[in-house]
Amino acid sequence: MDPGDDWLVESLRLYQDFYAFDLSGATRVLEWIDDKGVFVAGYESLKKNEILHLKLPLRLSVKENKGLFPERDFKVRHGGFSDRSIFDLKHVPHTRLLVTSGLPGCYLQVWQVAEDSDVIKAASTIAVHEKEESLWPRVAVFSTMAPGVLHGARLRSLQVVDLESRKTTYTSDVSDSEELSSLQVLDADTFAFCCASGRLGLVDTRQKWAPLENRSPGPGSGGERWCAEVGSWGQGPGPSIASLGSDGRLCLLDPRDLCHPVSSVQCPVSVPSPDPELLRVTWAPGLKSCLAISGFDGTVQVYDATSWDGTRSQVEPLFTHRGHIFLDGNGMDPAPLVTTHTWHPCRPRTLLSATNDASLHVWDWVDLRAPH
Amino acid sequence: MPEIRVTPLGAGQDVGRSCILVSIAGKNVMLDCGMHMGFNDDRRFPDFSYITQNGRLTDFLDCVIISHFHLDHCGALPYFSEMVGYDGPIYMTHPTQAICPILLEDYRKIAVDKKGEANFFTSQMIKDCMKKVVAVHLHQTVQGDYNMTPDRHLGAAWIDKCRPNLLITESTYATTIRDSKRCRERDFLKKVHETVERGGKVLIPVFALGRAQELCILLETFWERMNLKVPIYFSTGLTEKANHYYKLFIPWTNQKIRKTFVQRNMFEFKHIKAFDRAFADNPGPMVVFATPGMLHAGQSLQIFRKWAGNEKNMVIMPGYCVQGTVGHKILSGQRKLEMEGRQVLEVKMQVEYMSFSAHADAKGIMQLVGQAEPESVLLVHGEAKKMEFLKQKIEQELRVSCYMPANGETVTLPTSPSIPVGISLGLLKREMAQGLLPDAKKPRLLHGTLIMKDSNFRLVSSEQALKELGLAEHQLRFTCRVHLHDTRKEQETALRVYSHLKSILKDHCVQHLPDGSVTVESILIQAAAPSEDPGTKVLLVSWTYQDEELGSFLTSLLKKGLPQAPS
């Protein structure tokens, strides 16, 4: 019996819908542009990589009469080529511009998505002052009237550059050399950072560097690598920051008190992660207190953190997506590793996930706790 | 320089009405003659005016080649041959020849009977057109719409590394990344399963050929695994026709089908039974495969009418439906249909459109182009604005030129065809005897005579050529006089010349012959004393035209004079 076939039959019960694609190259990037398209980009070091703007299959976009749309395929709406590997890609909202970061990490590339053809062209570069061989700057975009690009590989090299004038509008101006693992813009004046050590901070760009932060790294620190994501910012009390460590620890924090996590749990994942840089934790935009994590193996796990408090230490996922293991591997190749995942902005239980063997899945999981 | 000229008459930066004119070495070939399914007027046909401006089509065109039986590749053929006027040969494979007339007739019936079209080709025209068809065998498996992933029926498309000058490929789906076959099958199974679980009936209208058998195998496997008891029916008419045509397809199908077919000589299933029209009224869930595929007549329409009023039921349309059919109407979202006698049918059953089409996607097209290794690629069946990225991708990854002409636009490709020439064994042996081994990196000049007779090219030695042609050999020699100031006797002059040349020309064979003359390779130098002036000697330097370079060199050298003899 083909385990793939078995899983597929099982999947009829586990998923409302499920799509599996083979990209021409693996991606570490899944960046939304409105709710109908995503950008993916290759990260190979020795050949040209493709940046693709993919339009989601119509079936995922239409609200009514879904059955009348047979198309289950992604359409490449735009494409471009990059000489460098791309590890991060951000779309500048309300423009046709993209900013990418990769190795070598001495500059950021700005791209123009053509209007009258299907080409993505390299437009200009943004110089990065801290040039390191193996570090690439994290990127986030302030989508104000005059968009600004926040970037940095270390705390001391954090800065915001106005995209049009190319003037630096903000610098961290500190000598701290801690390595950054994630950057996230929260509103017009605030951003959050997470260092690889687990150090978190919220920064107001209207003031000189004085972040709200947890000075001490996450609990049980012993060389683990951390990443974090802030959930719907400023929407009431309760923990809205999730921090994930390469040892499988997941901490929830309240922005008002970053030093004392609201809860700290151990996720049942295989540790250590084979590539801690791939760790990712995301909040579900459409489900209260739901999180997804990936980067430990070929799965994506969904958790419901509603009743987590300081007492719980071991948790079980609400759902585990195993499609990449059953459908894509053929037993001979090494097991796939999920490189990134993202939630659909409108459909509450739909996620996209990508692996290092160039597969891309779109899946809509069934909440088995819900009454029929 | 021989050229290949390509002009799309349809499908140039356009989807549908595939028709490409190719001129190679003075021959004009039309590739495909398709219909554009989206138009009802002249725009549905390729623009033949490009070639019909002067003179008759039959004089201009050497042949028409039809790649496969899909209507967007052959739909305009009867119009072209019987209404526009073409009497030349039409080539296609045997399976295409068998299926083409059926699809053309089906299409004609719908267009005329359902849509009331007037200026359409008739059944007789289809028959007359097919009389002009010459069926051929193909060496390659690939024809028409191809797919690189193994289909349950067809094997994966493959192609020899044939290195054509030009590969023409469609690009409609080159910007698509296809959902995996397994997920599409899963979607189908889920819909069927959910419907029968709630007690509903599933109608699947199918064509006699194509996906029906594949879907049956899929359901059979699933039913077996899930131990389901819900009946599945299959119209008998389907099986008979399918058998007949699948016999033609067998070389193209994959292992599993071949095994099933060959072992029992028909598609036999454990859970799938032959359908009887009475079964449609049975209560409870069931699945029925019935023809025709667009719900425009016959059994599938009958069943549809019975089941349409119940929302628990489902109809799954597996393919494109032509305008005017009930299939097309319900796929457009229509829920109230006017049937014969002004009866209105309310459609409450679920309508699902599932695509099982056979086109390759971006990856598949790149794979195929990569395998064939053409010199150039030409893209058709795509909109210009949406082919720019693909063009760049092909040019960069495969390092070949890529063109995308519009309808009526001609692309000219220079080619450098290689002409095979046979070299005679004698000539080769002679070259080998010169001692140097052949070296692929250092080309050597070979002297011979090219004899062209009929379409045969041979390279032979000059002697052999003269012999074959019965010609006498003539030798051409040049002689030059060099005057030297030398009071000694001519024998001594000759000796001085010999010593001088010997010391300078260390790489060449310099000899002093007994008769006093000096030879350098084949060049002969003789000293003579003119009677008028005892102080002057004349050197006669003589060489064949093959040694002209050395001869000229020697002459200039000697003109500079001889070195003083040591006393």
TrEMBL record, chain A:
Any GO molecular function:
protein-macromolecule adaptor activity
Q: Domain of life of the organism in this record?
A: Eukaryota
One of the GO BP terms on file: nucleus organization
- The reply on keyword Cytoplasm is yes
Sorted alphabetically, the Gene Ontology cellular component annotations on this record are: cleavage furrow; cytosol; spindle pole
What InterPro entries does the database record attribute to this sequence?
Answer: WD40/YVTN_repeat-like_dom_sf, WD40_repeat_dom_sf, WD40_rpt, Wdr73
Its chief place of residence is: other
Keyword annotations for this protein, in alphabetical order, are: Cytoplasm, Cytoskeleton, Repeat, WD repeat
Subunit structure and binding partners = Interacts with INTS9 and INTS11; the interaction is direct. Part of the multiprotein complex composed of BRAT1, WDR73, as well as integrator complex subunits INTS9 and INTS11.
Family to which this protein belongs: Belongs to the WD repeat WDR73 family.
Functionally, this protein is described as follows: Component of a multiprotein complex required for the assembly of the RNA endonuclease module of the integrator complex. Associates with INTS9 and INTS11 in the cytoplasm, stabilizing the INTS9-INTS11 heterodimer and blocking the active site of INTS11. BRAT1 then joins the complex and plugs the active site of INTS11, leading to WDR73 release and nuclear import of INTS9 and INTS11.
Q: What is this protein called?
A: Integrator complex assembly factor WDR73
TrEMBL record, chain B:
Q: Which UniProt keywords apply?
A: Cytoplasm, Hydrolase, Metal-binding, Nucleus, Zinc
Keyword Zinc included in the entry's annotation: yes
Per UniProt, residues of the Beta-Casp domain are 212-330
Q: Which interval of the chain is the signal sequence?
A: none
Query: Does the record's keyword annotation contain Hydrolase?
Result: yes
Task: Name its cellular compartments.
Answer: Cytoplasm; Nucleus
Got a GO cellular component term for this one? cytoplasm
Give residue ranges for domain Metallo-beta-lactamase. Answer: 16-211
Give a Pfam family name: RMMBL
Task: Give the primary localization class.
Answer: cytoplasm
Q: Which CDD domains match?
A: INTS11-like_MBL-fold
Q: Which GO terms describe its molecular function?
A: hydrolase activity; metal ion binding
Record-linked InterPro entries: Beta_Casp (IPR022712), INTS11-like_MBL-fold (IPR041897), IntS11_C (IPR048662), MBL (IPR050698), Metallo-B-lactamas (IPR001279), RibonucZ/Hydroxyglut_hydro (IPR036866), RMMBL (IPR011108)
Q: Which cofactor does it need?
A: Zn(2+)
- The chain's coiled-coil residues are none
Self-association and partners: Component of the Integrator complex, composed of core subunits INTS1, INTS2, INTS3, INTS4, INTS5, INTS6, INTS7, INTS8, INTS9/RC74, INTS10, INTS11/CPSF3L, INTS12, INTS13, INTS14 and INTS15. The core complex associates with protein phosphatase 2A subunits PPP2CA and PPP2R1A, to form the Integrator-PP2A (INTAC) complex. INTS11 is part of the RNA endonuclease subcomplex, composed of INTS4, INTS9, INTS11 and inositol hexakisphosphate (InsP6). Interacts with WDR73; interaction is required for the assembly of the RNA endonuclease subcomplex in the cytoplasm.
Per the record, the similarity remark reads:
Belongs to the metallo-beta-lactamase superfamily. RNA-metabolizing metallo-beta-lactamase-like family. INTS11 subfamily.
This chain belongs to which protein, by name?
Integrator complex subunit 11
**What is the organism of origin for this protein?**
Gorilla gorilla gorilla
